[in-house]
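Input record (one chain):
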Amino acid sequence: MKTAIILFTRIPIPGRTKTRMQPFLSGNECAKLHKALLKDIITQCDKTKSDTYIYYANDGAAFSSDNRGEELRPVFSILGEDRIYQAQNGESLGDRMNNAITDVLKKGYWACIVIGSDVPGISAHDIKLAFRLLNSKDVVIGPADDGGYYLIGMKKPHPPLFEGHTYGHGNVLREVVISAQQAYLSIDFLRKLSDLDIPGDIKKFLNNKSYIAKSYSSKPGLLESHSAIYTKNFLNDIEEIRKGERVIGTISIIIPVYNEVKNVEKLMPMLQNLSGVQEIIFADGGSTDGTVELIHNKLKLKNVPKFLLASSEKGRGPQQNAGVLESTGDILFFLHCDSILPRNAAAQIYKVMRKYKVGGFGIRFDSDNILMKIIALLSNLRISMRNIIFGDQGIFIERKLFFEMGGFPEIPFMEDYQLSLNLKKAGIKIGMTKSRIITSARRYPEDAGGILKHSFWLFRLRRMYRNGNLRTSC
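The corresponding structure, as predicted from the sequence alone:
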């Protein structure tokens, strides 16, 4: 019975691969790390008797019959030109995996699996075991320790397993398992493995000698795989980050905007007069109301060199991440455009950052309603008592830590909550300023009943999200 492996990968080109490792690794170093991962994983694939298909991400590049060979040269040099290469097809990652599985199974294979290119611990034994498990199961999954999965296999396409999921957050595996159960599909699991997505994963990978040894050798200890050899060079730098001398440096303000021309117009004079700030970056998500034009006009003025503009797809997560990539500050300060800062905002940030790696402002709403005052009080207590902070409280964080945590999850909402949960899980304490940031109450109803109903709704959404019962997809 013929079986197939579908290897999903990006092209290892600087600036277009392993970008969540930046700036800890340079663009060239990220590309070299990706090449080391590909060398290791193709070695394991070749130890099986399965056919291997290379499905590469287009990433917006104009692949054509004329330039395809040149664009794929970085993978040809690692995997060889005689393999079957196919561009990924589909809007979301789920669509692309489902389409690839459907296409390959049509070629007459009994079963196929999809694997990513960022799991250095996967072995030929894991791949063979996946196919053996499919003798009695509909689906086999290799769980990753970040809540996702590094392998999924099946004997026929099951589109519901890939529908309605937003990838890149900690509930992906749970959502897929629920979808399989709802479709009455039987599932089995491989061992859990770690991937290499963010700087913090490097130490975890190198310290996990047990599974690396099983993957590459029967001898005890860490075998020098390509990935291990390459990442070992950065272990000392990871240790320095974790020991963490306080970073008291420049501040970059990142402001996500989408059709906020009125608020941006009010905000700019306040920001222009703010001292101690390196730069102010507006991260636009496709505004059509004149927001971008207003920012462009400010960029042309010689007396406001601080203003910059970044663009991305709509969503606070991707917008703020895009803003960070344009920034140079040692401290990243994420500000909502409907907020008003205290005059000594920079001084307050520096004071907190002498003791903490991440912090935020206490808030108060621009409303005299007693219920809004209570909500503000509870929000401030949430930081000090539960170590949870939301975006409207003005999150600021060390640049190195932000990248080590993988940035904001690029999900339609809850990106700030998930970042807080990630920080809490890592045992990182959040500090809070004495000065308050004034936050707009525009998202709350004006009447008492409406405020209570809206607050309960937000509480319920967060609880559903924590429990994995809320799909963060559009």
